[in-house]
Amino acid sequence: MNGFYFGNSIADQMRGSGWFVGQFVPAALGLRHQTDVEVKWGIHPDGEKRPQPWASGHATTISVLIRGNLRVTFHSGDAPQLVSLGKEGDYIIFAPDAVHSWEAVGDTVVLSVRFPSVEVWQRARPAETAADR
Fold first, then answer.
1. Exposed, middle or buried, 100 (CB in 10 Å: 0-12/13-18/19+)?
2. Where are the beta strands (DSSP E) in the chain?
3. DSSP H stretches of helix in the chain
4. Rounded distance, CA 78 to CA 99, Å?
5. What residues are paired with 84 via a beta bridge?
6. Sign of CA dihedral 44, 45, 47, 50
7. How high is the pLDDT of residue 120?
8. Of 11, 45, 94, 125, which has the most beta carbons under 10 Å away?
9. What totals of helices (H) and strands (E) does the chain contain, helices first?
10. From CA 97, how far away is CA 95, in angstroms rounded?
11. How many whole angstroms separate alpha carbon 117 and alpha carbon 59?
């Protein structure tokens, strides 16, 4: 294995997910296979949204706005909290159990880093919100 890898995050994404580094990358592909971290280049067209609130349940996530505007809604307690990433470089960090949804306003690009990278993400389910209980 070489001590470096050069590629393109769009071409290297797994299963059309935007995620291009993590445990889900086959070990045969070298350095992109990691168990400590996952990295995603998220390209979201205007109006794209996560339809249901969600929590990874296993990893901390940091998302950095590259371009556009991303509205993230946290669903905890009685009133949802809205955070808007609108300036290039704005970022948000949230815990594994932070139930959230998001919407792209304008064509939006976000770099997300999640750690650790563990196989349970494939079995994750939309989170239960107070309204569901």
1. buried
2. 19-21, 38-44, 60-67, 70-74, 81-85, 91-94, 100-104, 108-115
3. 9-12
4. 13
5. 71
6. negative
7. 58
8. 94
9. 1, 8
10. 6
11. 7
Q: Which helix (H) or strand (E) holds 106?
A: none
Residue matched to tokens 């350095």:
31
Residue in 87, 40, 82, 33 with CA at minimum distance from that of residue 63: 40
**Cβ(61)–Cβ(49) below 8 Å:** no
Q: Determine contact, residues 105/46, Cβ cutoff 8 Å.
A: yes
pLDDT in tens, the chain (133 residues): 579 999 999 999 999 999 999 999 999 999 999 999 999 999 999 999 998 998 988 999 999 999 999 999 999 888 999 999 999 999 999 999 999 999 999 999 999 999 999 875 454 545 544 444 3
One-letter amino acid of 101: S
Please give the backbone phi and psi of residue 29, each rounded to the nearest 5 degrees, phi first: -85, 5
Stated pTM of the model = 0.85
In this prediction, residue 107 carries a pLDDT of 98
Return the H-helix or E-strand segment holding 130: none
With H, G, I as helix, E, B as strand and everything else as coil, classify residue 29: helix
